[in-house]
Amino acid sequence: MSEVKGATALPVPVAAVDNDRMALLAIKGILPQLLPGAQWMWGAATAQEAIAKALDPDTRPRLLMVDMSLGESTGVSVCRKIRARTSRVRLLAITAFATNTYAEQVAEAGAQGIVSKADVPQLAQALRVVAADGVFNPNPASSAVFLTAERAHERLARGSASGQAASGSASIIAEEQTSPKLGAKEAETLHLLSRGMSYEQIATQWGVAASTVRTHAHRAVDKLGAHSLAHAIAIWLESGR
């Protein structure tokens, strides 16, 4: 269910991060129709660039659209790193996959909603809701709980403080050293396997051979230095990706 908390202020500075430059051009071109009064600020192709610009007061957008697959990083990580530092940016996750693939993770990472790139009417609705300080969940029956930017920032800030008190900076160091090693497909493979999907089911969803999915999984095991696939999934889940 969508929740709106007020009228959208105009203009609305909007930015996007997507490692597909054609997708960025498409978003920029259609944005005036999706969100009347929106002001396009920038498009970033990498997680690092997007995080830096979102945290810089001179380039900070009011609303950032975050693709979930970003090459060597993930949109979930981008959302978490931005939200832990500020409540000034509204975050809307976008994905070419089914939204329930990432909904719970990105909600926990501090985003205000998630929407499919392919559903243009729903994308327009989500942009309007999130720009107006609301939250957007395309599947009310899901267990994902999206919070406003302010509430999500407070929750992550409290969690970070508690985690540091309990274990110092060990978990942060582990995330920086472990998570970035995985490519987007490798990370997505571990995520879907952790949700109980089989190689065959993932292959069907992606439209590829099951052997391709196995290759992604085996590479993830190797890159994480894991003893088994189950160990790799455990490491990936602990990293919070």
Automatic annotation (TrEMBL):
InterPro entries: CheY-like_superfamily (IPR011006), Sig_transdc_resp-reg_C-effctor (IPR016032), Sig_transdc_resp-reg_receiver (IPR001789), Tscrpt_reg_LuxR_C (IPR000792), WalR-like (IPR039420), WH-like_DNA-bd_sf (IPR036388)
Domain HTH luxR-type: 175-240
Domain of life, source organism: Bacteria
Region forming the signal peptide: none
UniProt xrefs under Gene3D superfamilies: 3.40.50.2300, Winged helix-like DNA-binding domain superfamily/Winged helix DNA-binding domain (1.10.10.10)
Membrane-crossing segments per the record: none
GO molecular function: DNA binding
Modified positions (4-aspartylphosphate) in chain numbering: 67
Any single GO BP term: regulation of DNA-templated transcription
Keywords tagged on the record: DNA-binding, Phosphoprotein
Pfam families in UniProt: GerE, Response_reg
SMART domains the record matches: HTH_LUXR, REC
Domain Response regulatory: 13-132
Protein name per the record: DNA-binding response regulator
Organism this protein belongs to: Bifidobacterium eulemuris
